[in-house]
Amino acid sequence: MRQTVAAIAAEQAADGALPWFRGGQLDPWDSIEAAMALDVGGEHARAAAAYRWLAARQRPDGSWAAEYRGGAETSPAVESNHAGYLAVGTWHSWLATRDEALVAELWPVVRRGLDLVVRMQLAGGAVGWALRPDGTPDGTALLTGNASLFQALRCGIALAGLVGSPQPDWELAVTDLGTALRTDPAAFADRSRYSMDWYYPVLAGAVTGEAARARLAAEWDRFVVPGLGARCVADRPWVTGAETCELALALVVAGQPEAAREQVAAMQHLRHGDGSYWTGLVYADDARWPVERTTWTAAAVVLAVDALSGATPASGLFADPAALPAPGTVDTPGSAAPLPGSRRP
């Protein structure tokens, strides 16, 4: 894993940008996932640089572009999952490092992003996936993105408790969103052929316990290829490393660590000699596709291994989502007073 973290770090630009690979595209969600892996590997300065790069590019409305290349916006679309995910990275960084200064620095950025997410919430509790050109939320909600936002809002609530700035609107939003994720499948676009829609509600902690185990068992044969990992799409002979390791995280949450270890082991055929990971394999043709080794694939491996091993204080974020504060309880252990530099409203 140290070698894999070094491979991620090698793709980072001098200004802190953390793209898919050096010279390639950067999107906020995947960049944050890669930054979390850097913190797991002890590369805190690099992780902080990646977060600061994003913070410097946040728009006034709390959003980011969907894609950057060379620091420039190449896809200006506003997507809700990008707006929210810095909350997860910042809380993960706090758990890993207890860097109070970085939390205080990023808190206003996190707050603007999650405030935008709340503004994009639809009447039934789901969150629109994007903003229309007129600034109103698109009425389409995506299940994977909403599950990620469920985790992001809960991390934001934890950060709010840490800095002493309660956000009751977030608590209401995450309660309604959790209800939609658990009880209203019709609220989300039908993308059931994608494995992420299968496991992500479990990974993010919206579906837990026996319901989580039943959900994973129901589609297991549809998505899992024995000995190779998980398909990205049910009807394609294509296994991908990130989806396999995210499935492993969901299995840890569901209390099935041995099955999780099997999946992490199964996808090691994607490992390159320098510790990086190929994105996927079209197993019908025995061909790597796409022909790229992405930082976010490597990061998913690192986060899964950390969750399984408990190697860092941040491992519990993905191993035990129940440890996050429940809606209505913003205080976290050791957070009775706000961090230095913060203030209560």
From TrEMBL:
InterPro entries: 6-hairpin_glycosidase_sf, 6hp_glycosidase-like_sf. SUPFAM superfamilies: Six-hairpin glycosidases. Residues 325-345 are annotated as: Disordered. GO terms for biological process: carbohydrate metabolic process. This is Prenyltransferase and squalene oxidase repeat-containing protein. It comes from Geodermatophilus saharensis. The lineage of its organism: Bacteria, Bacillati, Actinomycetota, Actinomycetes, Geodermatophilales.
